[in-house]
């Protein structure tokens, strides 16, 4: 498990990235039942259950959905019932957003004032369709606090005109609250 030191400064924001030691969580190279077991083991290390999470099935577009209780748990066990989007946002406690990535960027948005979070899959198609801008708009429309929104992406930290921090991460699995 890996955590970004910059994100640990926010005690209300929970995040974790799987590592090679956690095994393949994608089900691309193994039986679904074994993948579900590995996902459960990874989440267990975080004191979470499969039913706490909403897994997004990447659609390679710019659709962003508000995560809610009805979506929890289903897609970590049954791939056919996955949420087919490239972004999830929520301001509800106890909903963990889960994304599997390979060569695209996971983008974490966090509004510490309203405790709103977003998780975006930024592939080239989504980036071309301005998924990041749309996610910021969707999150700030809901909370009305653009100036407090932080967005995190690893290694390169950029400053935008609205004082939003950006930090880039790649090739890891993410669960966020």
Automatic annotation (TrEMBL):
Alphabetical list of InterPro entries matching this protein = Cu_polyphenol_OxRdtase, Cu_polyphenol_OxRdtase_sf, Cytotoxic_necrot_fac-like_cat
Instruction: Report the catalytic activity.
Output: inosine + phosphate = alpha-D-ribose 1-phosphate + hypoxanthine; adenosine + phosphate = alpha-D-ribose 1-phosphate + adenine; S-methyl-5'-thioadenosine + phosphate = 5-(methylsulfanyl)-alpha-D-ribose 1-phosphate + adenine; adenosine + H2O + H(+) = inosine + NH4(+)
Q: Look up the coiled coil feature and give its residue ranges.
A: none
Q: Name one Pfam family in it.
A: Cu-oxidase_4
Q: Which GO terms describe its molecular function?
A: copper ion binding; hydrolase activity; S-methyl-5-thioadenosine phosphorylase activity
Tell me the keywords, alphabetical order: Hydrolase, Metal-binding, Transferase, Zinc
- So what family is this one in? Belongs to the purine nucleoside phosphorylase YfiH/LACC1 family.
Alphabetical list of PANTHER family matching this protein: PURINE NUCLEOSIDE PHOSPHORYLASE LACC1 (PTHR30616:SF2), UNCHARACTERIZED PROTEIN YFIH (PTHR30616)
Recorded protein name is Purine nucleoside phosphorylase
Recorded source organism is Candidatus Woesebacteria bacterium GW2011_GWA1_39_8
């Amino acid at each position: 498990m890996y955590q970004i030191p910059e994100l640990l400064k926010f005690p209300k924001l929970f995040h974790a990235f799987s590592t090679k030691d956690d095994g393949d969580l994608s089900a691309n190279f193994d039986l679904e039942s074994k993948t579900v077991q590995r996902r459960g083991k990874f989440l267990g290390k975080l004191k979470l259950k499969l039913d706490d999470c909403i897994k997004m099935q990447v659609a390679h577009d710019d659709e962003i959905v508000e995560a809610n209780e009805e979506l929890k748990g289903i897609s970590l066990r049954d791939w056919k019932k996955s949420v087919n989007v490239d972004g999830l946002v929520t301001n509800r406690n106890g909903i963990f957003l889960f994304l599997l990535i390979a060569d695209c960027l996971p983008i974490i948005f966090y509004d510490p004032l309203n405790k709103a979070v977003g998780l975006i899959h930024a592939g080239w198609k989504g980036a071309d369709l301005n998924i990041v801008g749309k996610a910021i708009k969707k999150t700030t429309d809901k909370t009305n606090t653009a100036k407090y929104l932080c967005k995190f992406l690893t290694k390169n930290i950029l400053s935008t005109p609205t004082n939003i921090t950006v930090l880039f991460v790649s090739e890891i699995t993410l669960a966020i609250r």
